[in-house]
Design brief:
single chain, alpha/beta, Rossmann fold, Alpha-Beta Plaits, four-stranded antiparallel β-sheet, 11 helices, 35% helix, binds adenosine-5'-diphosphate, binds magnesium ion
Length: 301
């Protein structure tokens, strides 16, 4: 699969603040990537560096396999990293015409992109009459005018109402379906879970996870178990090869797996050891629980 962007040991300090710590990851064509992390984790800094508006401290990144310099490469990138900013007294169409003039793009693209973001019927309304969601959608249309290889969005749904959030997410999915690679930053787990195929989880400038969103959710899960004699239960479980670790939670044991294990198989195994369970439940972690676990693990180091 074609590499759109590769980031190698990128590091950024703002004076004493170590905002990005030696991060590396790759963006492949056709995927939707989410940089996920709480506020202050270095998402915007990372996007700023690859878009050449923030200076890196060390490390490197290369666009499109390093065949073009950053300036040329960025002509194939559409990005929205600030609040949408257009001329308030001009219409949406007039604003996009200006963008076309600056970038040397045919005006025929304007209607195509306005249609994609659902603003064609409002193209003659002045920008100042737009809701925040419409402004954000216009910014997306503007960023797409030159048919970029990749669209970059920083917190695309911040400040929007639920309907506005949904519209933006649907548009992002639509753009991805049309074949454009997407990289978005978000502090919202459910946003990344709903919109993205791949995630880079950041905390305090460090990468905690990179990989598919499915890979994050599809761990083997854990059993909740309880028996009359939880001590004997725990001793029997500790000998099972598919069991990674056991935690106690009030009167139940939480049993984490390192390999898939059927409830029936586990039940038979325990019965053969003379243990009857009163309670057995297989649970899968949601991405949210895993995200909290990932971030908790690192902070306890
Ligand atoms: P995020 O986008 O994930 O919220 P940022 O990249 O904006 O995170 O910020 C990462 C860290 O760098 C934070 O501690 C933030 O305060 C700091 N930071 C960001 N921009 C600047 C700046 N221009 N000067 C000093 N510190 C900054
Ligand atoms: Mg940010």
């Amino acid at each position: 699969m074609e590499t759109i962007l590769s980031i190698n040991n990128l590091d950024k300090r703002y004076g004493k603040v170590h905002a990005v710590k030696n991060i590396s990851f790759e963006i492949k064509k056709g995927n939707v990537y989410g940089i996920l992390g709480p506020n202050g984790s270095g998402k915007s800094t990372t996007l700023g560096i690859i878009l050449n508006v923030v200076n890196k401290t060390s490390g490197s990144y290369s666009w499109f396999g390093g065949t073009t310099d950053t300036h040329e490469a960025l002509k194939k990138v559409g990005a929205i990293i600030e609040r949408p900013n257009f001329y308030p007294y001009m219409t949406a169409y007039q604003n996009l015409k200006l963008v076309c003039d600056i970038k040397g793009i045919k005006y025929t693209k304007i209607d195509e992109k306005l249609e994609l973001v659902g603003l064609l019927d409002r193209k003659d309304s002045k920008f100042r009459t737009y809701s925040l969601g419409m402004k954000q959608r216009l910014a997306i249309a503007s960023a797409l005018l030159n048919d970029p290889e990749i669209l970059i969005l920083d917190e695309p749904t911040n400040g929007l109402d639920p309907q506005g959030i949904r519209q933006i997410r649907d548009i992002i999915k639509q753009i991805a379906l049309l074949g454009t690679t997407i990289l978005l930053a978000s502090h919202l787990l459910d946003e990344v879970e709903k919109v993205c195929s791949h995630a880079v989880v950041l905390r305090k400038g460090e990468i905690l996870y990179t990989g598919s969103v499915n890979g994050m959710t599809a761990n083997e899960g854990f059993f909740e178990l309880q028996a009359d004699d939880n001590i004997a239960l725990k001793a029997a479980l500790a000998q099972h090869p598919s069991i990674e670790k056991i935690e106690e939670n009030e009167d139940k044991l939480l049993v984490y797996l390192n390999n898939p294990l059927e409830g029936g198989t586990l039940n038979r195994y325990l019965f053969e050891k003379g243990i009857c369970v009163n309670h057995m439940l297989l649970r899968k972690n949601s991405l949210e629980e895993q995200f909290i676990q990932l971030t908790a693990k690192k902070s306890s180091n």
